Amino acid sequence: MRAVVIERPGKFAVQNVPDPTPDPGEVVVGVDTVGICGTDVHIADGEFPPTQYPIVPGHEFAGSVVALGTGVDGVRVGDSVAVDPSLFCGACHYCTIGRGNLCERWGAIGDTVDGAMAEYVAVPVANCYRLPETLSLTHGALVEPLSCAVHAFDVLPHALGAHYLLYGAGTMGLLMLQLARVAGAASVSVVDVNTDRLPVAIELGADAAATTADDFDRSRGWEVVIDCTGAIAAIEDGLGRVRRGGVFQQFGVAPGAATASISPFRIYNDEITIVGSMAVLHSFGRAVELMGRGAIDANTIITHSFGLDEFPDALETFRAGIGRKIQLRPGA
Hints:
The protein is α/β, with parallel strands linked by helices. The protein contains 11 helices and 17 strands. The chain has helices spanning 38-45, 93-96, 137-140, 143-154, 171-182, 198-203, 232-239, 264-269, 284-292, 298-301, 311-319; strands spanning 2-8, 11-16, 26-36, 60-68, 80-83, 86-87, 107-108, 120-124, 128-130, 163-167, 187-191, 208-210, 222-227, 242-250, 273-276, 302-306, 325-328.
């Protein structure tokens, strides 16, 4: 089969590699669609420490089951599935207390083992979620990023009628925007320095969108402020916009060595809650259901589709900040 292989940081190519065969408890999925996200860029650049090279990237994907290993039930050949890429050890302290996303031996399909930027990929059947017949495989590939956003709301202290301020109107920011509406936000304001993204935020339900929060009229701040960028300037600005008694969530991925300035006195005096959210945890099935019932406008979020051989072009399009969700179609 053909696959994108990152041989080492900065060196990748589409290569012919052996077809995968399923181990017991695994299935082989014929990949229809796989999304590109920031983690894939970090892997290509050698900036994701868990990755060992060479590796086939790709962790947000959907396709059809083409082969079953022994001991597999619950899915059949021909089923359309989205796949949770999480590979938790199940035995460490965090796994035993139900916090597998913090697993001491954390792994993920496409991040630490070969992933879905390929024609086929072998995956545990336990990670497969059958898609509703009404949901296309292209839209099904959005389930993984949506499941990250669902987990973010799981750990976010929030109340009906809260006012939200979101930093970032890329794919993740737009998913969080739509979930905030589902979660009963009184209003959602969005900040992004890319002016091309602001009309899309309005189209998807933002009450206001601007390049700076100074343009919004909320002198007392917002009950919920969420950073979806990982940019230190946005994080520091957002921490200053939280209303007394409010919540700041770090959802965007900042560089590991980066630091941001905060006011410890304000955290104390204004009773500000700061919460993080990392990856997927018990949220994938609910993301499938939300996608299936149309809670997310997938057509607006997906803007680019490339063939497998066009991976370099897709990667450069992502780096340039063009469009929103960029996908590869290995099965096209």
